[in-house]
Amino acid sequence: MDLKKFKDTVVRKKKSLSGFLDQLEELVPPDMQEIVEQADAEVWKEIDCTTCANCCKAMTPTYSPQDIKRIAAHLGMTAKAFRDKWLYKEEETGDWMNRTQPCQFLVDDKCSIYEVRPEDCAAFPHHNLKPFDIYGDTYKANLNHCPATLLLVDKVKKHVEREYIWPAQLPEKQ
């Protein structure tokens, strides 16, 4: 994965894609879920997360109590020792997060605890959230970090603009 090229693409497309996601709060095509599912299937034919790891480099997952117990046991330590060594508790949300970025478990661009990784990591980039239009803020936040999300939103936007009269395509009122 060419992350420089990805970051250049984010700079070029983010405003347009974010605006599209904002418009979905007001106007949703009736077949939106089918559009998203088709685009998502196409995305995963083009993107291989194991060649990227940008999420691990630029973001931190949240760790549930179950994640902490599972990972700590895998590493042969107590949950408290695991938290003390690698996590901090976010004040506003109370979520357990990594102290450092990139993730301490990222080794040679691979997750060293992949089999027991946090559920937040396993679910990322959260393309399965339904309905798509309700989670615009999640997709907007992930545009900066995830080539798969950028490509998904771009494909959905192109499909919607091709199949529907969309507000961005209407002439401006005088």
The overall average pLDDT, rounded, is: 92
Total beta strands = 5
Tally the helices: 8
Strand content: 5-15%
Name the structural class. mainly alpha
Strand order of the largest sheet: 1-3-2
Our measurement of the CA-to-CA distance between the termini, rounded to an integer number of angstroms, reads: 45 Å
Radius of gyration over all CA atoms, rounded:
19 Å
Q: What's the structural domain tally?
A: 2
Q: Tell me roughly what share of residues is in helical segments.
A: 40-55%
The general outline is elongated
Largest sheet: 3 strands, antiparallel
Poorly predicted sequence stretches spanning 5 or more consecutive residues: none
- Spell out the helices and strands N to C: HHHEHHEEEEHHH
Please explain how this structure is put together.
The protein is mostly helical. The chain has two domains: 3-26 and 34-50 and 127-168, no CATH class; 62-123, no CATH class. Helix content is 52%, strand content 7%. The protein has a three-stranded antiparallel beta sheet with strand order 1-3-2. Strands 4-5 form a two-stranded antiparallel sheet. Strand 2 and strand 3 form a beta hairpin. Helix 1 packs antiparallel against helix 7 (136-143) and helix 1 crosses helix 8. The longest helix is centred in the first third of the chain and has 21 residues, at 3-23. It is elongated, with a radius of gyration of 19 Å. It starts with a helix and ends in an 11-residue tail after the last helix.
